[in-house]
Design a protein that fits this description.
This protein has 57 residues and is an all-alpha fold. 56% of the residues lie in helices and 0% in strands. It is built from one helix and no strands. It is rod-shaped.
């Protein structure tokens, strides 16, 4: 009985640690991917005519 409880505790702890590691790496990847909140001319939407040329403002 003690052996099965010990194995259950080890398995549960390993799973919890695995979930913590995955969530930490996901949070880190999300922080790296977000763009800084700075407006630049590169982010402006450009409208195009029907023949594919950009429209002037």
């Amino acid at each position: 009985m003690a052996d099965s409880n010990l194995m259950y505790a080890i398995t549960t702890a390993a799973f919890v640690i695995f979930v913590i590691i995955l969530s930490a790496s996901r949070a880190k990847r999300y922080r790296q991917r977000t763009a800084p909140p700075v407006a630049s001319s590169e982010n402006k939407k450009v409208r195009y005519t029907s023949d594919g040329k950009p429209m002037s403002d």
